[in-house]
Amino acid sequence: MDITARLQRLDPTLCLYFEGDWKMPAEGESPGKFLSFNDAGLECETGELLYSFIRMLKPDHVLETGTHVGIGASYMGKALQDNEKGHLDTVEFLPEIHLRACERIYGAMKLAGIVTCHLGDVANFNPYIGEGRSSDSPWQYQMILLDTEPQTRFAELIKFMPFLEPGGYVFIHDLGRHMAQVQAVHPDHPETPYWPWGPLPQQIKDWVKDGQLRPFHFENPRGLTGFYKPSSQDYKWV
Ligand SMILES: C[S@@+](CC[C@H](N)C(=O)[O-])C[C@H]1O[C@@H](n2cnc3c(N)ncnc32)[C@H](O)[C@@H]1O
To answer: Of the candidates 121, 120, 161, which has an alpha carbon nearest to the alpha carbon of residue 144?
Structure first.
């Protein structure tokens, strides 16, 4: 059974909609469109990609910024559970939304001990704090998904880059191959160039130019950009 159907069986409140027009597919209808459980969470296909990615990577530590009601955390948590190893930290700052995620993750999905739903602002989230870690032995993540608000995700990449293990991957949801640098000024938001993302920070440009991050892209409806952090074991292209 595919992972999306498994999540629906565990939590029958999860209904499928076509991404974009939000109509429910008719029985057996499969017109090649993307699907979602809601308009804030990951598309099901993106969830399935991250599920498979984690099954392949077998990470010890994964981080998600922006839990919402736990769609991404359900896909990634189930992959860790199926791997029989690994842990996901997921961070949400709205208490009511965090509570709904906890109900889903610890209740229907049965992911207690595998996923920790943290309540708080990602800007204050400290990967040093928590069971089994300290400032002397911080956790290094092998995979990170940045999925809060577009205007904070570049800053999150900068914040969490030191906690990404070499050979690890970061994904930024909703970000296309243009890196959101296509519209200089939005008429309703003249104060923020490239609204809502803002300009790409020089630090990130330098990491890509210096080869410390290698970007890659998936053309799903909302966009998904990944970065690979090279490992010293990688072949040197000399
Ligand atoms: C796009 S939704 C995340 C969807 C989620 N990853 C999923 O797949 O279901 C963004 C969430 O990030 C939360 N958020 C936004 N800014 C945040 C911040 N600075 N710290 C923590 N949570 C934040 C919002 O409240 C919202 O629930």
So the answer is: 161
Could you tell me if the CB of 71 is within 6 A of ligand 1? Answer: yes
pLDDT tens-digit map of 197-215: 999 999 999 999 999 999 9
What distance in Å separates the CA atoms of residue 158 and residue 85, rounded to the nearest whole number?
A: 27
Which of 65, 68, 111 gets mutated to test ligand 1 (max ligand atoms within 8 A of its CB)?
A: 68
149 pocket-lining for ligand 1 (C-beta < 6 Å): yes
Are 180 and 194 within 8 A, CB to CB? yes
More confident residue, 237 or 117: 117
pLDDT above 70 coverage of the chain, percent:
99
The structural domains of the chain, ordered by start, are 43-228 (3.40.50.150)
Task: Pick from 94, 156, 174 the residue to mutate for probing ligand 1's pocket: most ligand atoms within 8 Å of its CB.
Answer: 94
